Amino acid sequence: MPDAQISTDIIVGFPGETEEDFQQTMDVVRQARFSSAFTFIYSPRPGTPAAAMEQIPRDVVQDRFDRLVALQEQITEENLATFEGRDVEVMITGKLGKKVTGREKTGVLVHIGVPEGEPVPEIGDFVTATVTHAGRHNLLADPDVAAGQTYSVRH
Predict the structure, then answer these.
(1) 82-120 burial, b for 16+ CB within 10 Å, e for fewer?
(2) CA 54 to chain centre
(3) pLDDT digit string (tens) for 64-119?
(4) For residues 149 and 87, what is the distance between their CA atoms, to the nearest angstrom?
């Protein structure tokens, strides 16, 4: 499934996590190239065994968290950039001013600018459009139909 978009959840700073452990997490993220990661800083819960363990200093945990988020942001941007210039089919789920928004088949959020003179899709319609820009967490399709880029609506 070459187009699969796989996300994960990661907790940073669990008691006992060493820098080596953290580097192994970074290696997994580099190799897996997740489409996104929901990353959290460990917080002790009273009454749990982990809460009684020696906690990692907050500044160390924050540094690890920041490095992990930066790596995942880079990977996400690289993954989304592969969509630029491609036609995607999007199920419309909302309207944002002069744009419509929805998700393409792998779940990536796409904002579409409706070209002048073209039909405005309704929620539930499918639009095939050329991706013109990859954002940090979504795609933009502002197709130039006169230049041969795709924009079509299917009800």
Answers:
(1) ebeeebbebbbeeeeeeebbbbbeeebbbbbbbeeeeee
(2) 34
(3) 999 999 999 999 999 999 999 999 999 999 998 889 999 999 999 999 999 999 99
(4) 8
